Amino acid sequence: MTDNTNPPITDETENSTEGSSAKLQQDLQDMTEIAKRALADLQNYKRKADEERSMLMSLGEINVIKELLTVIDSFKRAFNYIPEDIANHDWVNGVTQIEKQLISIAKNVGLEEIPGVGSPLDPNVHDVLAQIPGEKDTILEEVEKGYTFKGKVIRASKVVTGNGQ
């Protein structure tokens, strides 16, 4: 038959128990530090993924808005050539309302016109195509309307400014 009694506790056994307790305590601290770092890495990954997703969505929005700008420009050009005899026709008024609705929707999602004729030149948002006699650095003519989207220039205004003569 085997003896089921535990060996007597000696100083050597106590030191061994304290040593393994200290080792277990150190292992626990190491594992806790690893878990904290893994959690921080996960949080950083989630933040970065959210930022990238937001940036991609914004780029997608900008691309759609840029495409819509060509439609808005086409409407404006077409309205410049409406024959006078049909200018007040219901059909023309309906198309004008469609253009206004399109512009309103674009503005609601963040599109803004860059100030044009009469405003001071801002090289950050205006491309000067020519200078003619007139008040220096004042926009005298706007060749193509410029726009910002959520505070970023997506198309600079093409303008003619005064040269100060």
Structure described in brief:
This protein is α+β, with helices and mostly antiparallel strands and 165 residues long.
Order of strands, widest sheet: 1-4-5
Uncertain regions spanning at least 5 consecutive residues: none
Q: How many beta-strand elements?
A: 6
Sketch the major β-sheet.
3 strands, antiparallel
What is the overall number of helices?
2
Tally of distinct domains:
2
- Structural class designation: alpha+beta
* SSE order, one letter for each helix or strand: HHEEEEEE
The rounded distance between the terminal residues' Cα atoms is: 119 Å
Shape estimate? elongated
What is the typical, i.e. mean, pLDDT? 86
Strand content: 15-25%
| Fraction in helix | 40-55%
Radius of gyration: 35 Å
Description:
The protein has 165 residues and is of the alpha+beta class. The chain folds into two domains: 12-109; 112-165, Head domain of nucleotide exchange factor GrpE (Nucleotide Exchange Factor Grpe, Chain A, domain 2), CATH 2.30.22. Helix content is 54%, strand content 20%. The strands form two sheets. It has a three-stranded antiparallel β-sheet with strand order 1-4-5. Strands 2-6-3 form a three-stranded mixed β-sheet, with no helix packed on it. The termini are far apart.
Give me the secondary-structure topology.
Blueprint: H1 11-80, H2 90-108, E1 111-113, E2 126-136, E3 139-144, E4 147-149, E5 152-155, E6 157-162
Parallel strand pairs: 2-6
Antiparallel strand pairs: 1-4, 3-6, 4-5
Helix pairs in contact: 1-2
Based on the model shown, name its key terms.
single chain, 165 residues, alpha+beta, Nucleotide Exchange Factor Grpe, Chain A, domain 2, 2 domains, 3-stranded antiparallel sheet, 3-stranded mixed sheet
